[in-house]
Description:
The complex is a heterodimer.
Chain A: E1 2-6, E2 9-13, H1 16-23, H2 28-32, H3 40-51, H4 57-60, H5 70-77, H6 81-84, H7 92-100, H8 106-112, H9 118-126, H10 130-139, E3 144-145, E4 149-150, E5 157-160, H11 169-181, E6 188-191, H12 198-215, E7 221-223, H13 227-235, E8 243-246, H14 251-256, H15 261-273, E9 284-288, H16 292-295, H17 304-317, E10 322-326, H18 338-354, E11 359-362, H19 373-386, E12 390-393, E13 398-399, E14 404-405, H20 409-419, H21 425-433
Parallel strand pairs in A: 5-6, 5-12, 6-7, 8-9, 9-10, 10-11
Antiparallel strand pairs in A: 1-2, 3-4, 13-14
Helix pairs in contact in A: 1-3, 5-17, 7-9, 9-17, 9-18, 10-18, 10-19, 13-15, 17-18, 18-19, 19-20
Chain B: H1 10-13, H2 34-51, H3 57-64, E1 71-75, H4 81-86, H5 88-91, H6 96-103, E2 109-116, H7 121-141, E3 149-153, H8 159-166, E4 169-177, E5 188-194, E6 205-211, H9 218-235, H10 240-245
Parallel strand pairs in B: 1-3, 2-3, 2-4
Antiparallel strand pairs in B: 4-5, 5-6
Helix pairs in contact in B: 7-9
Amino acid sequence: MYRHNIHHRVYKFPDLKTLLGKASPYRSGDELAGLCAGGYEERVAAQITLADVPLKNFLNEAVIPYEDDEITRLIIDDHDKAAFSHIGHLTVGELRDWLLSDETDCAILTTIAPGLTPEMVAAVSKLMRNQDLIAMANKCQVVTRFRNTIGLKGHFSTRLQPNHPTDDPRGVAASIIDGLLFGSGDAVIGINPATDSPAAVSSLLTLMDELRHRFDIPTQTCVLSHITTTLQLVNEGAPVDLCFQSIAGTEKANASFGVNLSLIEEAYQATLSLKRGTVGNNVMYFETGQGSALSANANFCVDQQTCEVRAYAVARKFNPLLVNTVVGFIGPEYLYDGKQIIRAALEDHFCGKLLGLPMGVDVCYTNHAEADQDDMDNLLTLLGVAGCNFVMGIPGSDDIMLNYQSTSFHDALYLRKVLGLKPAPEFEGWLIKQGIVDDKGYMLPVREHGLLKGF
Amino acid sequence: MKRNIPHEIEPLKALQEFTSARIAIGRVGTSIPLKQSLEFKLAHAHARDAVYSELNSGKLTNSLKHFEQPILHLHSQVTDRRQYLQRPDLGRKLNEASLNELNGYSIESDVAIMIVDGLSATAVNENTIGLLDALIPLLVADSLKLAPISLVEQGRVAIGDDIGYGLKAKLSLILIGERPGLSAADSLGAYLTYNPKPGLTDESRNCVSNIRPKGLTYKKAAKKIFYLINEAFKRKLSGVELKDNAGLIAEG
């Protein structure tokens, strides 16, 4: 039982998961789940109470029982006690102040990361303002490698997302070429397929692999099919660079996606065995998003942000190249408006980075959310300041297959310009060599580029 | 004012033939040119207006008269659009007055048609009558008995389970406004559920999507829905299994 008095009113929270839910900044998904605070005062009372909870409590009180959930077991069994010993004497509130202190730098954060559990990280984020989330994420640097180097300070990458409603190869290729000529695609060229049939996925993989070879592009490609489809294609010898999967923070939610830890492990090992990376061996690409556990009716009365951070425990087990929180895709019943989407994105980015993940964000919204391009401009700029590893690059922000709006090729150019950021070094060298940008990073006029020939 | 027209996009224009994605739109500095920026804004405005559009009950009721069926006016438990967007659970249930209204009409029938605003009442206002003009004659010619037609405000797809069950219909057909996209804000969706009852989930439905003059035309949509209804009655089921067993359904 956790409690706090404000004036003569006593606020009681029967357990940690209730306390975490009530301490969460307001969002529609927690309201829908019946987990959020009844009012402003109760929310702050919960935050004050949470600040005094010792981090040690999180190791003794699981929000979802150890016996019932393999992700809880993963969190507890993989917990690094030596790393935890540096911070084990702190409360959640003391952790917040310790994280923000000037003495706590990137090297120290990297050392303690394996000692943090997702629930500790979710808890501390609930005590932070947006400014704290940005300042803290900016301190972390998570660098990953496959055919190029992603996440270096001063660099900012994009996933080129050339989706097409019927997977038409020429339609996909047209968007890829447009994107490359805008300097997009250093994180990955990644297609969401309209169909999950192995034959269709295989032909998209081959198309991208041929293009990459022909122009010697230092990047990686991916078709975001279900992990079982990718596994089958790896075994059949298709050109699979990265293995993709959507994941969530409870075993039951992952079951609704048709995955579990041993299946992911099998696909991870299979993809690793291909040894296709040239500068590194990070082969996994995960996507997440607040609200997925609730929408699968698998949240076990745990608030949506805590569920989200639990998904990062799954991600970090498999040394991913990319983790992408698709923040505004899920709709207004989980994140109602621009304010909630922005807050959630900054939380996810911070929590992932603190746990040692290469976080990117799909800065996005649907047409029934109270959000528009101005909100996305704000979020994109905030994430640039926070040191986000990558965002999406989609022609004119309009994904014609998934029917939502994300960031455009232009958006990434804007961010690089105003914040002085560069693409992944290997990719930047390629862009200069191809005459797409000059050595200062300015876009050169599109001439009859080689990429346009043979179309 | 002379616009600063980006002069360099010509070589890329040829790619536009292959996709409706917003490629080859040029740039001013690193920004999207104004014309393309305003085109995007207009498309989003249409989508936003569609989300907040309302069912034109008067006009729909008038137009439905020639089908010679009773018309029910029903409402979900949602009070306004803001709540509708945040509480899908309430949009799936009828309010008490509507439940009571159903009581007077529970005579066994084959097909109950429900017209639901969903996320785009615009889609419903513009496309329902055209679709029903093509579909209802097919049902009548097949001797299927129709239940009263329901007009439902602030509803989600699953509200058809309550209604179909209350009306004692063997199959419910929900015509509902789909989530507006930038390319179309007026897409109507048709969901059919065999043996509707409260508590069903999406696996037990079949969907025909993108019904509008520039998408799946009324005639084609009616044919497809009629085919599905026939199959559902033949197999006494709907949903995933119906889809799996019939390759024809995927054909436009």
